[in-house]
Prior knowledge:
Residues 32-427 form the Amino acid transporter transmembrane domain. The chain is built from 14 helices and three strands.
Amino acid sequence: MADGKFLADSTKDDNDVEASEGTAHLISHDPWYQVGFVLTTGVNSAYVLGYSGIIMVPLGWIAGTLGLIVAAIFSLYANFLLARLHQTGGKRHIRYRDLAGHIYGRKMYYLTWALQYINLFMINTGYIILAGQALKAIYTSYSSETMLKLPYCIIIAGIVCGVFAFGIPYLSALRLWLGVSTFLSLVYIIVALWLSIKNGINSPARDYGIQGSTTTKVFSSIGAAANLVFAYNTGMLPEIQATVKRPYIKNTQKALAFQFTVGSVLLYAVTFAGYWAYGSSTASYLLNSVQGPKWVKTMANAAAFLQTVIALHIFASPMYEYLDTRLGRSNESMYSVYNWSVRLVGRGTYLTINTFVAALLPFLGDFMNLTGAISTFPLTFVLANHMYIKVKGKKLNALQKSWHWANVWVFFLLSVAAAAAALRFIILDSKTYSIFADL
């Protein structure tokens, strides 16, 4: 039972309110459609090439399809709630931790910060793994030698991400790069979609049965549930909302509506086509399953690599904002020698750690499971619903309160179960593969 005023704009949305704390980055600058493309870039990043294998394979047609639809509905709802809390207590809360700290106090400020940065760190680590896999796929298409192993590809990917990070000071500065990202997404999605359909038409009957023992099926299903929420949520909506022009809430709602409608069409198309074409044998990186002209697959892998560099920058921006604000000089341009040096050292150190972890444990599906479990579930569903109760509680009737409390407890229990499943798979994979594995 949703709040009856769910779609209503805040009556204070046009007020000239101040941001919660100072920032070195540009805010209140972007039109709603630019924010919509930021959100859509996350949804249709190269991660989308994994959903056939890590969502549909463990869940099957019925549960997988229903899961994607239900996850989209609940994710949109939770993000709308979070967007409406952007202006609370007479201030714009431009960081997730600022909002949580205002509502709960200083301890929750730090806990939310920790959860969010775990979430974003693991997402960025996964992006570097993805980029490395794309490079490795290109290499193996043209050479039977094993000189260029996955860890080396991951290191190259990390270096490229670092170079890009140095040149783009803040999220709003992406601008035309969002158009480039959209084009690159279309390239690898269309190629994967076309080759999947072509392969599926020419292939014998596929097995769509869920593989493994009963225990494995249960844990795989729970892990897939974490991936469902991971597919739609950024874990940094307040930071993205900080960039939008007034009216802040209405424009963010427009951007979210764009993300969950137009922005999700390609996600569904490539996920279903990949699973239809290859069934239970679908790889966790779809371009490893498709068969077609070498140059076409190379083009798709190159597009996936380059788009991943841009997408990573979005999810690393909260860390960059913290480093730039804390260490940079606010009275100088972001392109001054000193601030450039801060970016070089701060972002370089952060991405070096990301790259090391990615090369050490390159288990992409496990990272997505664990990320969804320990941070995406709590941040997007548990915390958003509970904060809404705290802020709007006096205006909610008993049924509405019960609805939000049900969301809090159901998603909390799902979070615990998904974390247990993810840790199980990481332990199993760690026994199967050595560190710095060449998968």
